[in-house]
Design brief:
The complex is a heterodimer of chains A (181) and B (582).
Chain A: E1 12-20, H1 25-36, E2 40-47, E3 53-61, H2 67-75, E4 80-86, E5 91-102, H3 108-117, E6 121-125, E7 129-136, H4 138-149, E8 153-158, E9 162-165, H5 169-180
Antiparallel strand pairs in A: 1-3, 1-4, 2-3, 5-7, 5-8, 5-9, 6-7
Chain B: E1 2-4, H1 5-15, E2 20-24, H2 30-36, E3 42-45, H3 49-63, E4 67-71, H4 75-79, H5 81-89, E5 94-100, H6 116-120, E6 126-129, H7 136-148, E7 154-160, H8 161-165, E8 167-169, H9 175-181, H10 193-205, E9 209-213, H11 215-219, H12 223-233, E10 236-239, H13 264-272, E11 275-279, H14 285-288, E12 299-304, E13 318-321, H15 324-340, H16 349-361, H17 377-387, E14 393-396, H18 400-408, E15 417-418, H19 429-439, E16 445-450, H20 451-457, H21 460-466, E17 472-477, H22 482-491, H23 508-514, E18 518-522, H24 525-537, E19 543-548
Classes of the chains: A alpha+beta (181), B alpha/beta (582).
Chain lengths: 181, 582
Amino acid sequence: MSVASTTTQPSYHILSVLVQNRPGVLARVASLFARRGYNIFSLAVAPTEDDALSRITIVVDVESAPVEQVVKQLFKLIEVVKISELDPRRSVERELILATVRVTSENRGQVVELTNIFEGKILAVGVEAITVSLDGNPDKLDDFEDLLRGYGIVELQRTGRVALPKLDREARLRAVKGKAV
Amino acid sequence: MKMTGAQALIKALEMENTEVMFGLPGGCILPAYDPLLDSSIRHILVRHEQGAGHMAEGYAHVTGRPGVAMVTSGPAATNMVTPLCDAYMDSIPMVCITGQVATYAIGTDAFQECDTVGITRSVTKHNELVMTAQDLPMAVRQAFHIATTGRPGPTLIDIPKDCLTNTMDWHWPTDAEVIDSLPGYRPNMKGHPRMIKEAARLILESERPILYVGGGVLKARAAEALRELAEITQIHVVTTLMARGAFPDSHPLCLGMPGMHGTASATTAMQKSDLLIALGARFDDRITGKVSAFAQEAKIIHVDIDPAEQGKVRRPDVPIVGDCRLVIEEIVKAIKDLRNGGTEQADTSAWKSRISGWREQFPLSYEPSQPGEELKPQFCLEALRDSAPEDTILVSGVGQHQMWSSQYWNFERPYTWVNSGGLGTMGFSVPAAIGAKVGRPESTVWAIDGDGCFQMTAQELVTASLERIPVKVAILNNSYLGMVRQWQEMFYEERYSEVYLSPEVPDFVKWAEAMGCVGIRVDSPEEVQPAIDKANGVDDRPVVVDFRVAASEKVFPMVPAGAGNDDLLLPPSQMARKEFLR
């Protein structure tokens, strides 16, 4: 599940796909990937600020197909309105993890401490288990997950990443400059 | 105006200028068949839903207008999957309407329920499950718009029974409303001006250019533009299986079909070219052979309306996304501009003499049969060709007879050749010929079929008889699944596995007569011409001619699957001089 580090040449690509918010769109996207033999690392779907549109964030294994072909084939779907390719090095990515971890009275404190270090949340505490959550960069979630594994994971669920392009400095300050003048 | 969904559906089809539809009613689509009685639309009742689909394709092939098929839910919809996939692979505009169980029954495994939009998703350009009667006119408009614009293809509208019986307020969406409802669908028609200039420059610089013409040229109605481009540059043309007729076979620049069973000169000219000008072609594996060995020295100009075709198989040096007709016209202009500016075309005379050498040395050829010997299928085709009235439309099934048809016919005009190229659907020819005849009743329509293919869809000749659609069918009957037999002979050490049909059963003449057709059997070369004359003289019912041909005849040239195009196998009589093919 974990993907290559973002600092080297990424073996995955993030596609941010704006689609018409209609029944069956996700099935179309999924069946296109299956039909053409493209691998998906993760996929997240949700409505956008515009009711008529949803955004699908797909992390594609670029070793299974050239990203250019994936994008062109996706764009042939009538309900796909816009596709942005996000270079992992120039985008902000976030993901959420939920995990229930087996604990004893002796090591429960360690899990709590670990969660606090990662700035996660304790969602439920039981005698033999504890449920925690953490959102953040997927790499950070990978580290957190690895550390939790040592205690024994009862159940774990990650959302798959969502992403947007990073605002460069000029874009970030444009409005401020405008006001200053 | 209030009306039922069924009335709205038929009215919407009329508004889209549907003159004919092919179909078969059943439970869920029943309400739509009632207003059809009062409609101007001619409905042709088929014997199997697959037939309706292929008829719609044949109609679309020869008219350029979308073929329309209407069938019920469940098994009818699944029977439509093959024609939809066929139309999708060959970019045929087609609108299919399927009935569905009522909205409240969807998902309950109701009688004749199936997930039609799910099943047909990957074989349609777009499909839609309509959920209210009110949405029907828009769904019909979208389906026609999507099927006929951009890269054409099949669309499907799945309509639950209660949407047909419920009442709606008639509203016919405007063009603007249709376009606004499809924000993600904006086919690019005009090529990029910089790329067009670059293409013109490369064309004039090339010493060994070839125009590689695919079915997109026909879809874009670009045959005239193509002819001008070829003539002003004097560049030779190859027409793929899907493009036969896009450029006249009798034209001195025409090299015929390239690829696995193409002419040696067409295949080799592509192979040795330094510039392939691909127009509406998709570098199919039957054209390229082994991709890494394909036209290794050629630069590529690739004109296609579908951006996904650019670079799918071979990376183009000059990609141009746009409508073939518009782009070719612009390229012609750009070439004229360059010439007016003093640019001269490179010297192609050495290339031309190489090509004419290949044409002389390696014509299509077969060993004619001696008196008393078995009939040769190529001989039958030549006789059919030479007796065919002008503007005859040729339709074929899939296999050896298809390749011989493409090789031995002379295609002089666009839209006179109908076949299943991409999907390779056996059984295509009889129903597609019926659809073609419905679309162009004034033309003679000959279906060339194999005995294997014929047995898959022959029942539609009942439809043709009763609807008075006088198609002509020539079965090149070798009692084998001939192409498979050829592969087993050549690549499986003559171990023939499950390819022998039967020379006795069925009796094709009796079968034809039972279906209301004229049936003729031909066993020897002397009987060929009288049989063809008799068949051409029948115009009130379908004719089936059962040509009993030599089973051992093989299609040549041939590039074995997986081999490079340099390794093509010539007919045995030419193999000795293969070294000249360079």
